[in-house]
Amino acid sequence: MEIIISSTKLELGKKAAQTGADLIRKAIEANGKANIIVATGASQFEMLAELVQEDINWSVVTAFHLDEYIGVSDVHPASFRKYLKERFVNLVNLKEFNYVNGDTGNPEEECARLGKIIAQHPIDVAFVGIGENSHLAFNDPPADFETEQAYLAVNLDEACRRQQMGEGWFATFDDVPQQAISMGIRQIMKSKAIICSVPDERKAWAVKHTVNGPVTNRIPASIMQQHSATWMFLDTASASML
Prior knowledge:
Layout: E1 2-6, H1 9-31, E2 34-38, H2 45-51, E3 61-65, E4 67-69, H3 80-87, E5 96-98, H4 107-118, E6 125-128, E7 151-155, H5 158-166, E8 179-183, H6 185-189, E9 193-198, H7 204-212, E10 230-235
Parallel strand pairs: 1-10, 2-3, 2-6, 3-5, 6-9, 9-10
Antiparallel strand pairs: 4-8, 7-8
Helix pairs in contact: 1-2
């Protein structure tokens, strides 16, 4: 895992986007196409704002949604589909974007649908973040490191739900959904490269244990220590406990 520390969130976002864009361009050059994973949340604001400005032939890029709340419509202010449409999908000319439909009414069926699609699209670059509780996607601790399911329905722990409220996505704690559909840990780890953007002091504890601690499902993001092509982009605040 390569650690890159920037002085500001803006600089972090620019460096993460540039590194990710270079990897996408290399995949297109080698294969004529690229497949990517795109995350959401406050940690991705600056990176996505820079990524959409990069010179990439988006028309040969297929993208996958990392996770979504169960029971939240795509017009809800906290919807990750809404987030991605506004900050990424509507700003580039993708070949295809595969959304997670959290309000489908049948999460298991939705997981199976997405699993079949992503199985045909080996991922070149995964853009991810980590949670205050070190979750990777919505795989809260103790995360399932063994399942081969590409997508799964998961329960959200209290720390995760409080983070979502704290970031302003929901008015009250009771408004935060208790379940989500998330890409699984093994599926994320199958990506050829991982670009992990983690700003803010509130993530410093998670960063410390992700980078320096043992690999354990109690610190889900620690699994990235075992990936041979992971870049973690931090600002001075999130790196403050290293």
